[in-house]
Fold:
Amino acid sequence: MLFKDAITKENLLKYYVKTETNQLYVQGIEELKSKGYKILGIVCDGRKGLIQAFKDIPVQMCQFHQSAIIRRYLTKRPKLQAGMELMDVLNLMKQTDKESFVGALNLWYDKWEQF
Structure:
């Protein structure tokens, strides 16, 4: 498990584990806090219960894992027009800001709501 500073790209802490657990994530954050690091936010893989484990720290799922979940439902080459357009919206996620992405997703939803 690797805890990394998103700004400096510095590796702050790593654990060699057989299996990642939410408790190990909590332990890692507590260890970093005890070393004087101020945790401004957490980007994680979205494992079940992990986002809820941190009440006082903003947490978000990384874009890679968000995309992977959506691709599991869509496939990489959707055949229906709604799926193709949703894949186009998904591909915007890496290239745009939150407001633009949410706007594109809302436009897609408005168009395909009945689908």
About this structure: The mean pLDDT is 91. The first strand starts at residue 2 and ends at 4.
